[in-house]
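Example 4.3 (complexes with small molecules)
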Amino acid sequence: MPERAPSELTESEEHYRLLDASGHPETSVEHLPFPAPIMGSDSADKSEERRGDKLAAYGALVSMLVFVCVTWFVVFTNNPTSMGWFPVHPLLQSLGLGCFTYGILTLQPTAHPKTKAAGLQRHQKTMLAVGFPCIALGTLAIEIQKFNRGHGHFATWHGIFGLVSVAWLVGQVILGGGSVWFGGAAFGGGMKAKMIWKYHRLSGYVLFPLLLITAHLGGAWSTWVTSHSQPVVRFVGYTVAPIVAILAIYARVRTSKMKFL
Ligand code: HEM
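Answer. The structure with protoporphyrin IX containing FE bound is encoded below.
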């Protein structure tokens, strides 16, 4: 493979850089997840991390690990093969939420052109290749289960929040993908598409707690979980862990990237 100088961009990095070729001086490129040129040596020296960022990242990862482990433990210690399609639901939903957490952390924040390109790639792989399919299949599983057993749909707060968050998730994927794929062609390309990315970010920070509230409702209150697990296990897995994850992700938010005016 030919060597490349440290300052050279790969083809895909160059592609993202070109997205910013509009040259609008008033437009900050800080909020973008993809690399854009910043004049001077400033960008190379700028640290991406604030005090407490690392602690918050560990907090988010550990709490989601607890949430996933509690879920898998409760399912696998309760004779999962006797429950039709149901076990697929908590197993995949928890895995999907774990992926979303990592996918958000990996973009929080990225400031240098190279870390932006790498972060965006990790984000897309985690969200689209694993997280989203898990949530889609996990939702399909519970719908098949309910259909097979003749149970009513969306009859609980968990079911209603689940429906809303899954629909929102589909919109979230469209907003995010549309604003970066093919130079954001789906949203008119260039700066127009970049503006949409801001909404993808904001919407993601609302959707993340919504998904965790959904998981809390299903884990802490549903009849199946309450009759198949210890109260302390449920409390740690479905109340403490989601709260810690939300606080940790919010602690890492850069409000400077949230300006809309
Ligand atoms: C973000 C994650 C989750 C989403 C989006 C979600 C979504 C849903 C939806 C849409 C339904 C209702 C389907 C219908 O009524 O037709 C449902 C049902 C159910 N889910 Fe989840 N779920 C999630 C996580 C969990 C977790 C972690 C558990 C257990 C630990 C769980 C346990 C249940 C149970 C027991 C039901 C059947 C009872 C009911 O409808 O409330 N879910 N889920």
